[in-house]
């Protein structure tokens, strides 16, 4: 299906925001000003955006430790997120969550998650809630090839099938679970989708470095899961992680020239640009203008994050309970 | 007032709250029971008969019978709670928290804090705990000491059918995650229960079940009855015991404990969990820190030993605090100096 010019511009912008957000963090983290552990989503933007461009705020997503892309794609505020990662009390989570725990429940973003594999059961609960409400909303869990080896993911897939939860398991196979290769850690040495198939789910596969592949695949997946009573589905996207598992990871496990090759051949933003300009749907100037606008927006978010209020010792004690 | 069993107080409270609020849903293993069998739904109604009849009243959407997948049950409860529902999840045995702890401890308990206070997580996790059935080391444990130490959770341990009614209703209507620990040896105990459909007991308010001037005994659950028996026996000798039923271990009614110890000067904590880093150790430390000047004897904690729970009848009896052990502890603090 042909996307409108506005939809194409929006999709590109969303991916570009994630890209520049992460590229900027990669630089700023090296100054030591940002605390804690950060896992960058750079390279996988087409998946988050290709999925979330189909969703409304009523649809829920549950994310991972590598969650910035999912959060931004689902509508979390860029400035609020940058402030959160910088640890400000003006951050999206008041500086109490940080990179691994960004959430905005009002936007249907039920949380990044520091525990690999923890998101899938939560998305089953959210998907059961969608099923009960019967309005065609869905809950999506993003997992990687690492999380697909956690027992929680297996339990969640089976329970979703048994309860006919409106849950979609989106597996982003970036070929590395932390520092270990897919060929070693995934016993079937084949794919992830076939596991979901074995649990009784209808499955799809797509190219996670191609926005259009993700977007069109998700259209089919969502058409299926939004029908009350159909139950869950799974989809696997093959993708690439441009940075290490965490920031500071020396990535000694990468092959010679691997990072240059994936940036040259499997960059979703480059592919998108080539595709839409070749088809004369958008002009280079359109995209260049967006690039400049996004860079300025990210620069502004960093300016705001650096100037934002810091939390105080009293803030430690609030938000544990509603009442106690 | 109506007389009912502890387990019936559980079922009737859940039924009343499900009827009152359509967002209340239940999930757990065999809470319906018989799904996918020739016997059909409701062949079980929960292995503790704590969900009997609810499937017929509320249907499969709200009585979600799950596979044996404790992590997924707890995670689904968390996801339901984040999505506007008020789940009541049943963990068949409290011992199974080992399988599902991440979803309770790292997820449910922490969402509100990690998300900067911008969400609520109104989930109740019910679990049957405690010894008395010779069910050995993996089906008999009291797990409150693990859960009470987790910020973000509230931990409730009702002793009487009336308290089940009042505390479970409070738990279901509470917007924070609540662990509701039901002692399996108390399920068959009967008692008077208020008829008020809004009867609620606030958390953090202990119940004084016996009043006396000489010794403070703090406990909850099955062992509270043992403490009452000791108090009644000693009353005949002119020794008065304050017996405090905590009702909730998080929040803890520090005031009730400290007020009592300021009068009696002597404290016994009777706890069903092992001694190290326990409720007993916690409350003895509280009293040592905040009521030191009132103390006439060292505070004592009566716990099982630092061992797993054994199987044989003789061994389980020897393991658990008994009326005799509690009485001996009371006499020990009375004879100090």
What does this structure look like?
- The complex is a heterodimer of chains A (324) and B (337).
- Chain A has 324 residues and is α/β, with parallel strands linked by helices.
- Chain A has a single domain (5-306), classed as Thiamin diphosphate (ThDP)-binding fold, Pyr/PP domains (Rossmann fold), CATH 3.40.50.970.
- Chain A is 44% helix and 10% strand.
- Chain A contains twelve helices and seven strands.
- Chain A has helices at 5-29, 45-52, 68-73, 78-85, 119-133, 151-163, 182-185, 193-198, 211-225, 258-265, 268-278, 284-307, and strands at 60-62, 139-144, 167-173, 176-177, 180-181, 202-207, 233-238.
- In chain A, the strands form two sheets. A five-stranded parallel β-sheet of chain A has the order 1-2-3-7-6, with helices on both faces. Chain A has a two-stranded antiparallel ribbon with strand order 4-5.
- In chain A, helix 1 crosses helix 12.
- In chain B, the strands form three sheets. In chain B, strands 3-2-4-5-7-6-12 form a seven-stranded mixed β-sheet, with helices on both faces. Chain B has a five-stranded mixed β-sheet with strand order 9-11-10-13-14, with helices on both faces. In chain B, strands 1-8 form a two-stranded antiparallel sheet.
- In chain B, helix 1 packs parallel to helix 7 and helix 8 packs across helix 12.
- The mean pLDDT of chain B is 97.
- Chain B folds into two domains: 2-193, Thiamin diphosphate (ThDP)-binding fold, Pyr/PP domains (Rossmann fold), CATH 3.40.50.970; 207-334, Rossmann fold (3-Layer(aba) Sandwich), CATH 3.40.50.
- Chain B has 337 residues and is α/β, with parallel strands linked by helices.
- Chain B is globular and about 65 Å long.
- The chains are: A alpha/beta (324), B alpha/beta (337).
- At the A-B interface, helix 5 and helix 6 of A face helix 3, helix 4 and helix 5 of B.
């Amino acid at each position: 299906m042909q996307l409108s010019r506005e939809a194409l511009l929006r999709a590109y912008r969303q991916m570009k925001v994630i890209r520049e957000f992460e590229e900027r963090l990669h630089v700023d983290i090296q100054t030591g000003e940002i605390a804690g552990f950060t896992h960058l989503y750079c390279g996988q933007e087409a998946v988050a955006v290709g999925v979330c461009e189909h969703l409304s705020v009523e649809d829920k997503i549950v994310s991972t430790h590598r969650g910035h892309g999912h959060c931004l794609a689902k509508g979390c505020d860029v400035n609020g997120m940058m402030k959160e990662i910088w640890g400000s009390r003006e951050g999206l989570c008041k500086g109490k969550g940080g990179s691994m725990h960004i959430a905005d429940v009002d936007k249907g973003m039920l949380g990044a998650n520091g525990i690999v594999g923890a998101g899938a059961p939560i998305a089953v609960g959210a998907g059961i809630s969608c099923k009960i409400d019967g309005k065609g909303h869905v809950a999506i869990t993003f997992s990687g090839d690492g999380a697909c080896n956690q027992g929680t993911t297996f339990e969640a897939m089976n329970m979703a099938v048994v309860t006919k939860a409106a849950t979609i398991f989106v597996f982003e196979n970036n070929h590395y679970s932390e520092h270990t290769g897919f060929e070693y850690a995934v016993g079937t040495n084949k794919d992830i989708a076939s596991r979901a198939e074995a649990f009784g789910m209808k499955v799809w596969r797509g190219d996670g470095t191609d926005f259009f592949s993700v977007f069109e695949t998700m259209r089919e997946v969502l058409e299926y899961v939004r029908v009350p009573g159909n139950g869950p589905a799974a989809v696997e996207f093959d993708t690439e992680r441009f940075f290490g598992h965490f920031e500071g990871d020396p990535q000694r496990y990468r092959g010679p020239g691997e990072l240059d090759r994936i940036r040259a051949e499997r960059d979703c933003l480059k592919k998108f640009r080539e595709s839409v300009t070749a088809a004369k749907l958008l002009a280079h100037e359109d995209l260049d203008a967006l690039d400049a606008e996004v860079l300025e927006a990210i620069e502004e978010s960093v300016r705001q994050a650096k100037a934002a209020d810091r939390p105080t010792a009293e803030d430690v004690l609030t938000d544990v309970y509603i009442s106690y | 007032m109506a007389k009912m069993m502890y387990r019936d107080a559980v079922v009737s409270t859940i039924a009343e709250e499900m009827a009152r609020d359509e967002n209340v849903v239940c999930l757990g293993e065999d809470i319906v029971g018989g799904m996918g069998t020739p016997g059909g739904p409701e062949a079980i109604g929960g292995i503790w008969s704590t969900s009997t009849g609810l499937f017929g009243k509320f249907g499969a959407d709200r009585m979600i019978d799950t596979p044996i997948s404790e992590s997924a049950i707890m995670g689904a409860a968390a996801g339901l709670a984040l999505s506007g529902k008020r789940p009541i999840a049943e963990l068949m045995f409290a011992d199974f928290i080992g399988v599902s702890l991440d979803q309770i401890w790292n997820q449910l308990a922490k969402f509100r804090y990690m998300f900067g206070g911008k969400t609520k997580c109104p989930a109740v996790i019910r679990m049957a705990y405690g010894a008395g059935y010779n069910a050995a080391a993996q089906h008999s444990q009291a797990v409150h000491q693990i859960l009470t130490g987790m910020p973000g959770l509230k931990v409730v341990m009702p002793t009487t059918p009336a308290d089940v009614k009042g505390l479970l209703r409070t738990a279901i209507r509470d917007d924070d995650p609540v662990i509701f620990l039901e002692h399996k040896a108390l399920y068959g105990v009967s008692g008077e229960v208020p008829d008020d459909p809004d009867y609620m007991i606030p958390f953090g308010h202990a119940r004084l079940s016996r009043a006396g001037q000489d010794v403070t005994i703090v406990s909850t659950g099955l062992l509270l009855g043992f403490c009452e028996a000791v108090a009644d026996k000693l009353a005949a000798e002119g020794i008065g015991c304050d017996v405090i039923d905590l009702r909730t271990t998080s929040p803890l009614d520090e005031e009730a404990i400290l007020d009592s110890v300021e009068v009696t000067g002597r404290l016994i904590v009777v706890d069903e969990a092992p001694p190290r880093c326990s409720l007993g150790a916690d409350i003895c430390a509280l009293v040592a820190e905040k009521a030191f000047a009132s103390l006439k004897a060292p505070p004592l904690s009566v716990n099982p030993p630092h061992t797993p729970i054994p199987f044989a009848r003789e061994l389980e009896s020897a393991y658990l605090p008994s009326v005799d052990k509690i009485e001996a502890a009371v006499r020990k603090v009375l004879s100090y100096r």
